[in-house]
Every structure is written in structure tokens, then in C-alpha cells.
């Protein structure tokens, strides 16, 4: 199998959801093959996709929004270390929580979202003209129009990461930055959990480690400025929902037991965990 990132030979590593995961011996990227069809991908991102968030109703769940906003505050801290407020684009903006956080810090928010369901929610809070329902390749944005681009939990979902990053580079102004948060297959949690790693999902088409992500960014005209472990805000209520949809033989029973034993007031209390993801800031060369 030829690696879609660097065109080198790749070897089978394991099988997940009836698809083979390959490991590139050159750039260290992992990828699944065959990829889901376009119809399968759209079906994945229907309203039911957000069941794992615990969202109910058109405006979502308040505790979920507060939890995700706490994570996005940390990502914004990282972005603001390297660039002043300006126009920011969030690719895969979901319900728009990251963009609401960015707007409060003085950024002008724009988003792209494939899911019709979450795009509708984002448009209600951020404006019809600020959110594009589709993919970045089809979005009607001018070249060199953004100071920053955010891709949180996005790069692992795209069918062609080289094409996506090349497009993003064209949209950034000279000296603009990109923030990527994505699973790290070189993380401790990946090593400990093996094929039970929670990031092995049918919608995750690519898996990078730090070396692989640096390679693909450099290949597409970016210089990495900073890489760090990406802690996320979590709470037991969210954990219970996640691990009863994406079941895990070890974690699911433990989470369900904790939810039964602990008082209700503790279930929505946020804490921060490293979940096997990395956050990267890179600048357009």
C-alpha cells in the first residue's frame, strides 16, 4: 500500500472496524484503507454523531458547551502566543463553540462545517454569512484572507490531508498561523491501550505522531513553532455518554460505576486530562 501522505510503501498494522490500518515506514503516518465512501462519511456526521457529546435539542447541552469551551480557552491561549487578534477560520467548527471563544477575545470568526445539524446551530449563534456548510475545498473564501486557522479534531477526518493543508496555506496571510489538535499515535495512551485506543474510530482516516505531523506541515509550506500534549476538559457526565456509545471493555464499566456512586453535583464538574492528543502551532512559510 502506498502512503497517501508521502507516497512511500506502508505495511498493515491492525484492523479496526473492518478496515485495515496501515503504518508508513517512512513518514510514520497511519491511515485506514479502504476509506469510507462519501455517502458513508455524510451519514457518520448526521445529527446522531453528536449523541456522543450528550447534546439534546437544537441549542445543545449547557454543561457540554461549558466543558468544550474550557478546552478551547486553552487552545486560544496557544494561538494568542503567536498572533494578535484578526480574522480566524475554524475548519470543522461543529456547533461553533471555539469560534464563540475566539470572538470574545477580539477575533472575527468564520467557520466551515460538513454536518448540516451542527452547522445550523453554529449559524444561529455566529451568523448565516460567517459559517459555510461544506468542506474547506469548496468554501468561498479569498486567498490570504485569514490571520489564523484552527483545526481541532479535524485533520484525522479529512480524506486528503495534503490537499487540505495546501488549501489552508493559500487562505492564510503571510505570517499567519495554523493550530492543529489531533490524536497522537505516539502518545502514552496509544501505547498502553493498543488496538483499544479510544481514537480508533470509523471516521478517523489518518493518525499522526509528532514526526508525521511535522513532516506533512513542512511538506505543505509550514514551519512548526510549538508542539505540546493537548489536555482536554472533561467531566463524568460526558465520559459516561462517550463510553456508552464508543464502548471500551475496561473504561465503560468503571465510568458507569463512578456515575452511579458519586453525587449529581460532581458529574458536570470539569477536570483536565491528556487523552492522547497533541496541539501544534505552525506558521506559514
Question: What would your notes on this structure say?
Answer:
The protein is an alpha/beta fold and 285 residues long. It has a single domain, classed as 3-Layer(aba) Sandwich (Rossmann fold). Helix content is 33%, strand content 28%. The protein has a seven-stranded mixed sheet, sandwiched between helices. β4 (87-91), α3 (97-104) and β5 (108-113) form a beta-alpha-beta unit. α2 (62-80) crosses α3 and α8 (236-245) packs antiparallel against α9. 40% of the residues are buried.
Spell out the blueprint of helices and strands:
Layout: E1 10-16, E2 19-24, E3 30-33, H1 38-44, H2 62-80, E4 87-91, H3 97-104, E5 108-113, H4 116-126, E6 131-133, E7 146-152, H5 161-171, E8 172-183, H6 188-193, E9 206-207, H7 210-219, E10 222-234, H8 236-245, H9 251-261, E11 271-284
Parallel strand pairs: 4-5, 4-7, 5-6, 7-8
Antiparallel strand pairs: 1-2, 2-3, 3-9, 8-11, 10-11
Helix pairs in contact: 2-3, 8-9
Strand content: 25-35%
Strand order of the largest sheet: 6-5-4-7-8-11-10
- Mean pLDDT across all amino acids: 89
Structural class: alpha/beta
Look at the structure and name the CATH superfamily: Vaccinia Virus protein VP39
List how many beta strands DSSP finds. 11
CATH topology: Rossmann fold
Low-confidence stretches: 56-60
Order of helices and strands: EEEHHEHEHEEHEHEHEHHE
- Overall 3D form: globular
Do you know the CATH architecture?
Answer: 3-Layer(aba) Sandwich
Largest sheet: 7 strands, mixed
Report the radius of gyration as a whole number of Å: 18 Å
| Broad CATH class | Alpha Beta
Number of helices: 9
The percentage helix is: 25-40%
End-to-end distance: 31 Å
- What is the count of distinct domains? 1
Amino acid at each position: 500500500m502506498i502512503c497517501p501522505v508521502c507516497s512511500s510503501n506502508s505495511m498493515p498494522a491492525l484492523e479496526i472496524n473492518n478496515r485495515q490500518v496501515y503504518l508508513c515506514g517512512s513518514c510514520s503516518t497511519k491511515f485506514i484503507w479502504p476509506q469510507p465512501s462519501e455517502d458513508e462519511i455524510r451519514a457518520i456526521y448526521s445529527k446522531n454523531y453528536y449523541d456522543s457529546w450528550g447534546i439534546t435539542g437544537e441549542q445543545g447541552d449547557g454543561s457540554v458547551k461549558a466543558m468544550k469551551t474550557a478546552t478551547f480557552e486553552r487552545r486560544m491561549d496557544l494561538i494568542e502566543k503567536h498572533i494578535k487578534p484578526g480574522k480566524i477560520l475554524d475548519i470543522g467548527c461543529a456547533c461553533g463553540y471555539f469560534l464563540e471563544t475566539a470572538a470574545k477575545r477580539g477575533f472575527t470568526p468564520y467557520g466551515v462545517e460538513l454536518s448540516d445539524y451542527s452547522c445550523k446551530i453554529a449559524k444561529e449563534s455566529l451568523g448565516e454569512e460567517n459559517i459555510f456548510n461544506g468542506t474547506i475545498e469548496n468554501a468561498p473564501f479569498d486567498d490570504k484572507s485569514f490571520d489564523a486557522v484552527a483545526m481541532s479534531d479535524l485533520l484525522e477526518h479529512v480524506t486528503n490531508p495534503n490537499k487540505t493543508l495546501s488549501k489552508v496555506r493559500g487562505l492564510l496571510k503571510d505570517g499567519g498561523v495554523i493550530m492543529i489538535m489531533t490524536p497522537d499515535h505516539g502518545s502514552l495512551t496509544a501505547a498502553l491501550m493498543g488496538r483499544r485506543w479510544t481514537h480508533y474510530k470509523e471516521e478517523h482516516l489518518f493518525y499522526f505522531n509528532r514526526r508525521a505531523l511535522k513532516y506533512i506541515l513542512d511538506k505543505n509550506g509550514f514551519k512548526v513553532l510549538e508542539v505540546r500534549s493537548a489536555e482536554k476538559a472533561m467531566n463524568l457526565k460526558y465520559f459516561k455518554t462517550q463510553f456508552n456509545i464508543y464502548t471500551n471493555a475496561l473504561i465503560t464499566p468503571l465510568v458507569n460505576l463512578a456515575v452511579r456512586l458519586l453525587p449529581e453535583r460532581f458529574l458536570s464538574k470539569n477536570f483536565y486530562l491528556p487523552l492522547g492528543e497533541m496541539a501544534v502551532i505552525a506558521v506559514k512559510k
